[in-house]
Amino acid sequence: MIVRALLDILFPPLCHLCRAPIPGAEKLHLCPACLARAKPIGSPLCTVCGVPFATEGGIDHRCGDCIVSPPPYEGARAAYLFEGPVQELVHRFKYGHKAHLRRPLALLAAERLSSFVAESASDLIIPVPLHRSRLRERGFNQAILMGELLARRWRIPLHRATLGRVRATAPQVGLTSAQRRENIRGAFAVPSPAAVAGRRVLLLDDVFTTGSTIAECALVLRKAGAAAVHAATVARTP
Ligand SMILES: [Zn+2]
Ligand SMILES: [Zn+2]
């Protein structure tokens, strides 16, 4: 520990984003300036899909969309808005092949979502799967990499292969929310329903955009007999 402290003084860790040295850095390795630009999501928000409301103050309640058509999951929460430093971290992590960035992302999620995850009383964590063609081009599944760290932190077992991606889908970018739902339909399957039957599942992904991927996963898991499905993501598009 003394050696470590000395090393930190001589060679302070650098911020993952701007490379500024951070003396006395905690595990996160983001400098105060970068961290200050990140926007955590807090109340008031929708108790189901977790969309933050623009109003100042006020209590959490169901949003109009969740009242009109309740999603197939019990609750979804994201730690931060998908913009600024969080968006940059996710992009570098996924498209820049910087697998080590799973650590700051997992830490950001762990810090903000621990009480939601505890209240969900989930029995297992299921990372949203990638189709093998996407996996080949990226080299890793970002949700599994973060899930490995978060499973340890939250003390919930990680199930890497319980939910499978059976169909490759076109990228969701640029599609309307109805097109996204159509695009993702039938993309997932649970090969052994006994693994989820009667159990409470926590889905994990990096970004919640319209929620169509999370909703489709939740639907398939519920059909396989899951007792409840919650979803946690690091970020959510504003
Ligand atoms: Zn920085
Ligand atoms: Zn909602």
From TrEMBL:
Annotated Phosphoribosyltransferase domain residues: 184-236
Residue ranges of domain Double zinc ribbon in the record: 6-66
Pfam families (UniProt xref): DZR_2, Pribosyltran
Domain of life: Bacteria
PANTHER family, per database record: DNA UTILIZATION PROTEIN YHGH
Family: Belongs to the ComF/GntX family.
Name assigned to this protein: Amidophosphoribosyltransferase, putative
Organism annotation: Geobacter sulfurreducens (strain ATCC 51573 / DSM 12127 / PCA)
